[in-house]
TrEMBL record:
Reactions mediated catalytically: UTP + H2O = UMP + diphosphate + H(+); dTTP + H2O = dTMP + diphosphate + H(+)
Listed InterPro entries: ITPase-like_fam, Maf-like
Encoding gene per record: maf
Coiled-coil residue windows: none
Protein name, per record: dTTP/UTP pyrophosphatase
Membership in a protein family: Belongs to the Maf family. YhdE subfamily.
Key words of the record: Cytoplasm, Hydrolase, Nucleotide metabolism
Subcellular location: Cytoplasm
Function recorded in the entry: Nucleoside triphosphate pyrophosphatase that hydrolyzes dTTP and UTP. May have a dual role in cell division arrest and in preventing the incorporation of modified nucleotides into cellular nucleic acids.
NCBIfam families in UniProt: maf (TIGR00172)
UniProt-annotated site: Important for substrate specificity, residues: 9, 74, 157
Length: 191
C-alpha cells in the first residue's frame, strides 16, 4: 500500500503487521474549520492527506494507482482539541491538562483506491487514564525530545508510558494508526 504519512510510528505499525509500504507523505494545510468535533477533525484531515496523495499519484505516478492509499491524523482531546504542541509552554499546558485524569485520543483514517475511486473514512477513539504528575515530573519530561512531535505532547509507547495508568480501546489508535480496522476495510475493497 501507499502510506501518505511522514510518521515513523505509522510506518512501524503497518510494517509490523506485514504490509509492504511505499511512503509518500502528503503535506497539507492542517487548519481546522471552526467548531469542528475531534472525531470530524481527524477524519477531515486524514481525508485531506489521502486526497492530496491520490491526486499526486494519478498525475505523477499512475503506475501506483492500483495500490490503496492510507492516511491518518491523531488528536488528543479533553475539553479542547490538542494537536502537536507549538513550544515547551504549550506542551506543559497539555501535560498539565491530562495529568491525574482521563482524556480521549482520536485517530482518523482515510483509505482511497485511486484506480477504482473506492474510499472509506473512519475514526477510532481510545480513552486514556493518566497518573498525576508532580511539577518535577512535568519539567523532567519536557526536557526530553519526546513531547514536541506528538499530539497531546506525549507518546504512550515512549517515556510517557510510565504515566499511563490504563486505557480503554485500541493501543495502536493512541500511537497513531488502528491496524485491525484498516485490514478490514482493505479486505472489503478486495471483495
Ligand atoms: C498520543 C500519541 C501521539 N503520537 C503521535 C502519532 C502522530 O505521529 C502524532 C500526531 O500527529 P499527526 O499530525 O496525526 O501526524 P504526523 O504529522 O506525525 O504524520 P503525518 O501527518 O505525515 O501522517 O503524534 C504518538 O506517537 N504516541 C502517542 O501516544
Amino acid at each position: 500500500m501507499v502510506l501518505a504519512s511522514a510518521s515513523p510510528r505509522r510506518k512501524e505499525l503497518l510494517e509490523q503487521a506485514g504490509y509492504n509500504l511505499i511512503i509518500l507523505p502528503a503535506d497539507v494545510d492542517e487548519t481546522l474549520p471552526d467548531g469542528i468535533s475531534p472525531e470530524d477533525a481527524v477524519k477531515y484531515l486524514a481525508n485531506k492527506k489521502a486526497e492530496a496523495c491520490a491526486k499526486f499519484i494519478l498525475k505523477e505516478k499512475p503506475e501506483l494507482s492500483d495500490l490503496p492509499i492510507v492516511a491518518a491524523d491523531t488528536v488528543v482531546y479533553k475539553d479542547e482539541i490538542m494537536g502537536k504542541p507549538m513550544d515547551r509552554q504549550d506542551a506543559k499546558r497539555m501535560i498539565q491538562t491530562i495529568s491525574g485524569t482521563f482524556h480521549h485520543v482520536a485517530t482518523g483514517v482515510a483509505i482511497i483506491l485511486p484506480a477504482s475511486g473506492k474510499k472509506d473514512v473512519f475514526c477510532d477513539v481510545t480513552k486514556v487514564y493518566c497518573k498525576n504528575l508532580s511539577d518535577d515530573d512535568v519539567e523532567a519530561y519536557l526536557d526530553t525530545d519526546e513531547p514536541y512531535d506528538k499530539a497531546g505532547a506525549y507518546a504512550i509507547q515512549g517515556i510517557f508510558g510510565k504515566y499511563i495508568e490504563r486505557f480503554e480501546g485500541r493501543y495502536d489508535t493512541v500511537v497513531g494508526l488502528p491496524v485491525e480496522p484498516i485490514t478490514e476495510v482493505l479486505n472489503r475493497f478486495n471483495k
